[in-house]
Write a structure and sequence with these properties.
Layout (H helix, E strand, L loop, with lengths): L55 H17 L11 H11 L4 H23 L3 H14 L4 H59 L1
C-alpha cells in the first residue's frame, strides 16, 4: 500500500536525552538547563562570579568539625600536620573572638592540667612536666598550669638531691668496705701465722 512507511513495524526508536528533547506542545514545559556545580573559586576564571563563594562562616564551620574529629582521635597538640589546637588557632585567625574555638583551647589546657596532677600525685614528676608543657602550649598564661609547673620542678629538684645523697652514701659504703677488706685479710694472715708458730713450739 502506498503511503505506508517501509521497514518492520517494531523498529526501535532512537533514544533522545532529556536535555536535547524538544516539544511543540504548549502545555509541556521545556526542560530546565543544568545548573553549574559550585566548586573552588578560581579568581582568574571569568565564570567564577557565578559560583557560590566560600564565606568565613562556612570555613569556620568546617574547621570546627575538623577540630572535633581531632579531639575524638586524641590529637590535641600533635601531630603538627593536623591537631585540634592548631585548628582552633586557625579559626581564631578568621574570627578572633570565636567562642567555640576559645572554649576548645581551654578544654585542651584543662585536659593536660588534670593529667599532670594525676601524674604528680603518683610520683611521676617528669611525665607530669611533659603534660604541663603541652597544656601551656595551649594556654601559656593558665594559672593552674603555671602553679603545677612550679610544684613539679620543686619536686624534681628534691628528687635529684635525694638521688645524689643516696649515690654519695653508696660510694662511702663501698669505700669503707674496700678499706675494711685489707684489714680483714691482714687479721686472717696474722691468725694463721700465730697458729703456725704454736705448732712449731709443740
Amino acid at each position: 500500500v502506498s503511503g505506508q512507511a517501509s521497514g518492520p513495524a517494531n523498529a526501535s526508536i532512537p533514544s533522545v536525552s532529556p536535555s536535547s528533547e524538544t516539544t511543540d506542545d504548549p502545555n509541556v514545559a521545556p526542560p530546565l538547563p543544568e545548573q553549574p556545580v559550585a566548586t573552588s573559586v578560581d579568581p582568574m576564571d571569568p565564570t567564577a562570579e557565578a559560583l557560590v563563594p566560600i564565606t568565613p562562616e562556612m570555613e569556620i564551620e568546617k574547621l570546627l568539625a575538623d577540630a572535633q574529629q581531632q579531639i575524638d582521635s586524641r590529637r590535641f597538640t600533635a601531630p603538627a600536620s593536623g591537631n585540634a589546637l592548631g585548628t582552633y588557632r586557625r579559626i581564631l585567625e578568621i574570627q578572633p573572638d570565636q567562642p567555640a574555638a576559645l572554649e576548645g583551647i581551654q578544654r585542651i589546657a584543662a585536659y593536660y592540667r588534670d593529667a599532670a596532677q594525676q601524674s604528680l600525685q603518683q610520683g611521676r614528676v617528669d611525665e607530669s612536666l611533659g603534660y604541663i608543657n603541652r597544656g601551656l602550649r595551649a594556654a601559656p598564661k593558665n594559672d593552674a598550669l603555671l602553679s603545677l609547673r612550679q610544684e613539679a620542678q620543686a619536686r624534681r629538684a628534691k628528687q635529684r638531691q635525694q638521688e645524689a645523697q643516696r649515690a654519695m652514701q653508696e660510694a662511702a659504703q663501698r669505700e669503707r668496705a674496700e678499706q675494711a677488706q685489707p684489714d680483714q685479710q691482714r687479721n686472717v694472715e696474722e691468725h694463721q701465722i700465730g697458729r703456725a708458730s704454736c705448732r712449731e713450739r709443740v
